[in-house]
Each structure stands twice: as structure tokens, then as C-alpha cells.
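Section 5.1 Outputs to date
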Amino acid sequence: MTTFTGFTQKDFDVFSIPGLENRMEALRERISPKLEAVATELAPDVTAMTGDEMFVHVARHLRRKTNPPNDTWAALASNNRGYKKLPHFQIGLWESHVFIWFAVIYESPIKEDFAYKLEENKKDILDHIPEDFVWSVDHTKPEAIPQSDVDSEKFSNMTERLKTVKKAEILCGRHIARGDDRLKDPGAFLDLCKETFQTLEPLYRFTKQID
């Protein structure tokens, strides 16, 4: 197992390599081992925090035949066979930033029930999530909505979409710009991930309240 040594600017530059094979080779050599190391390091903490044993899943991008991936990630979920249908935690990279997420994506069978649970607890969630966090409704796009812009109406729009749109998703967490010094410091970055996941733990807890 690789020891996590921090992210470098060269890691982000992988996403500017042209061609599927060349970019995938660089991802496998440079980035996937680092993400696996981070997720493996975090798994015991997230297991203790959630009460569910967490397993590491590293994105393989196996379905891609032509277009190279523009982002990549590792996920932590409570099943060793897969994560996409489950509420999960992610650490990953786009060319511009690192993301640290809690995610319920479109494959999840509980997303409609989760949307109701979020709406029921809207005030507590909006009071609890820090201003520097962000929300996303589509994990395939790098853009996100700052928590500071999410008022009661906007939150309800996100949960309504989660209930009614088949491809709808909801993710919450942090974006860390590629030039941020914390990404170079393994200890600082791991602490940031732990703190972020701890803040997001109530969202995970809501998924466990769904029958």
C-alpha cells in the first residue's frame, strides 16, 4: 500500500493529458494510489463515526471507451462490493480542485426517502453546515453551490429535484483549490477530511433512519 505523501501540481495536470489511454495510465500511476491511501487511512475513523464498517472503492473508469475522465475519486461505503447505490463518502480530484463529499447519487434506491428526510430537517441542516461548504446536484460536473448561497427555498428546490428527477443527486462537502497548501501536507489534509466527514455525519445518520 502506498503511503499518502500529499498532492502536487503534477497530480492535477494529469487531467490535461490528451487521449484516454495516456490519461488513464497517468491516473493509475499517480493519483489512484494516493486516493486509495487516503481512503484506507480514513476508513477506521469513518467506521467508528458511522457505526458501519467502511470499505474503500477506487474509481476505475472501466466503462470509458473514448473520452478520458475529467475527475477521479475514492469512495468509502458500507459494502465491499460496491458503493454507487449506497450513501457514501468521497475524496477526489478535478483539474481545478480536490473534493471531499458525502454523496447520495442517482443510483441510490433511497434518494426519494432521503429527500423527505432532508426537507424535514432543513432548518437544522442549514444551521449546521458551515459557510465554506458546498452542495452539488450532479457529481459529473465540477461546479458546486456555496452553502452561503443556499437559503430555505434553494434547499427545498434541491430536495424536490431529488424526489422527482430520476438522475437527481445530492452531495455536500468541501472544495479545496489545487493551490491550497493543505493538499501538500499529508497530516493536514487527512485532518481536514476527518473534520469534513465529521461535519457531514448527521446527513449519513439520516440515511440510517430510512426504513
